[in-house]
Specification:
With 461 residues, the chain is mainly α. The chain is built from 19 helices and two strands.
Length: 461
């Protein structure tokens, strides 16, 4: 017998009229909110895109052997990849507002698959730069942390810090999942089958993304997770490129933007730029096997997931500026000690470094996204895209200069020390971010889903 309440008692026509007026997602829920499925598939796409960032470090030796390229020549493509990865992110965020999350995600997966396959037929450096540096960089940049921030902002009102942490860790989780298998494939077969494997993975995720991802909860008649009210889908915003540049112009007039961009440039230099490109060659300089060093990077990815999720949880509860200062200080100490930690075998000090660096590697992302949201409101995904561009410019510079320094000095030791010192500078910069606009520790969401004070281009909302 159908359960009756005061909204259904009465003439059947009245009940039908009420059903037409009420939100499709109102009433008791017995299934997992669609937001979690969207977040899960978005995480899978980020995992696959993140797996491509593992390749530069383990491709260096095979490419040098086959083509007789210098280390500096190889890292030109890696640097181009990192820079374009960063520059693509803010434009991808605007394209998602114009064409939708699903279309952009599927197009990005197709782009990285194409770039990976084309790289297998290259034979000169400019082709490596074009196929890997530009095509793969463009595709992976569109599926970067900005993609995760867009999904989180649209589909979640509560648990944003936690979900941001999970999605941010996806890129490193991809490294953890794929890196050992890719290293083994290169050791036993060749570097080309490894790239084909990545292309197949991206091609397999694309149909799933098309089936599950949706641009906004309103597409399904649902509320964002944790929202007390139905949120209409905003209309598509034309002029994606113009809007992206306008947001950059407006945000660049504020001090917090430059402070966050400077911090994140150092973050990129001390993670993607040096670790994912040069850790394996540096360990090999100390006599460590490539497979072993790749396994250590994968282990860093294991702890990276825990560190980023934990940082997201703390971001919901702490001052993001102080959290960043702690992260950068500890990371700087670890990098400065790396010259005396490296060895031919896996030692206890090396394991301490792996665990600690893994916990800190991407832990800066959730508090930086929170600060972008606090200062820039609805434009925060695009603003974070530009801040992330600074991250990748820093990464590209470190990748290139790290390779040049190694060729010139014969060792990476001065590079580790210099980057450790820059982390100390980033910790100081974090505390210079103004207090105004910083979201307070979460004690519960206010009615309507908002919390804290949001400052958008100097205007308090």
């Amino acid at each position: 017998m159908e359960r009756m309440d005061d909204t259904t008692i009465g003439h059947p026509g009245h009940r039908q009229e009420h059903d037409r007026r009420r939100s499709p997602d109102s009433g008791p829920r017995r299934t997992l909110h669609r937001a979690w499925w969207v977040a899960a598939v978005a995480a899978l796409a980020i995992v696959v895109a993140g797996s491509f960032s593992t390749m530069p470090g383990i491709l260096q030796s095979p490419l040098q052997r086959e083509f007789h390229w210098t280390r500096g020549t190889v890292v030109v493509a890696s640097s181009a990849n990192m820079v374009l990865y960063g520059l693509a992110a803010p434009f991808a965020a605007s394209l998602m507002d114009r064409f939708g999350v699903r279309r952009v995600a599927v197009a990005a997966l197709a782009t990285v698959a194409s770039g990976s396959l084309l790289t297998t037929v290259m034979n000169v450096p400019w082709q490596f730069t074009l196929f890997w540096g530009f095509l793969v960089g463009l595709g992976t940049g569109s599926l970067s942390m900005t993609f995760g921030a867009t999904v989180t902002t649209r589909w979640f009102t509560t648990r944003r810090g936690l979900v941001t942490g999970v999605l941010s860790s996806g890129s490193v989780l991809g490294q953890m999942v794929f890196l050992p298998a890719l290293s083994w494939t290169i050791d036993h077969y060749d570097w080309r089958p490894a790239l084909v494997t990545l292309a197949l993975a991206a091609s397999a995720v694309a149909p799933l993304a098309w089936l599950v991802l949706r641009d906004h909860p309103a597409d399904l008649g649902q509320r964002p997770y944790g929202s007390g009210e139905f949120v209409p889908k905003p209309p598509p915003i034309a002029g994606a490129a113009r809007r992206t540049l306008t947001v950059l112009r407006d945000s660049a007039r504020t001090a917090p933007f430059w402070l966050l961009a400077g911090m994140f440039a150092i973050c990129g230099a001390t993670t993607n730029g040096i670790m994912w490109t040069h850790f394996t060659p540096a360990a090999h300089d100390h006599g460590m096997a490539v497979t072993t060093s790749s396994e250590l990077l994968a282990l860093i990815g294991v702890f990276n997931v825990a560190g980023t999720v934990g940082s997201g949880w703390l971001t919901d509860r702490m001052d993001s500026r102080r959290l960043l200062a702690v992260h950068f200080t500890l990371r700087g100490i670890l990098l400065a000690l790396l010259p005396v930690t490296m060895a031919a075998t896996v030692t206890p000090p090396m394991m301490v470094f792996v665990v600690a660096f893994g916990l800190l590697d991407l832990a800066t992302v959730p508090p930086v996204i929170a600060l972008c949201r606090a200062f820039h409101g609805e434009d925060s995904a695009i603003v974070f895209g530009w801040v992330n561009a600074a991250h990748q410019i820093g990464a590209g510079a470190a990748a290139l200069l790290g390779g040049v320094a190694r060729d010139a000095l014969g060792t990476y030791d001065p590079v580790w020390l210099a980057l450790g010192a820059t982390c100390g500078c980033a910790a100081l910069v974090a505390m210079l971010v103004p207090v105004t606009g910083v979201e307070a520790p979460r004690t519960g969401y206010a009615e309507g889903g908002g919390r804290g004070t949001i400052v958008t281009h100097g205007r308090t909302q």
